[in-house]
Amino acid sequence: MNRQIKITEIPKDKNYEGYLWMSDEQSPKTGSFDKWLNITDESNPFIVEGQLYSNEEQKSYSIKYVDGKHLVVEYDLNKIPDGWISKKSDNKKFIPNRLNNVSGILFRQYWKPEKDELCEGMETLIPAAYVFTGFEYNKEKEEK
Known about the structure:
The protein folds into 2 domains: 75 residues, no CATH class; 56 residues. It is mostly beta strands. Helix content is 3%, strand content 48%.
């Protein structure tokens, strides 16, 4: 379901919905991502933070810049690990900051069972991952 990859391993020939926040910008950009196609860990400007989702492939990419390098996690929603659970009610919407025409950032929460010593060793569900799955748009954009 998830694996850490290099930023250069994100396929460049796919359509992504999401955002990228570049180090030389005041706010994140949504839409076309031609600026990031040649990004490496040595690039300047670099991606400070990003979330990309390919509905076609059912893959999501989480990008964060930490200690001079990009940490990129690829989530393949077609390959859920055994035991992981996600129900429709586990779809979460968060209010965005600095994203024009976006009323919500959508994530799917996954849970995994783990033995809990505080529950006499019985399995309890703990959060396993929040996976970006796109945006909910303001009505103004939908009407255009």
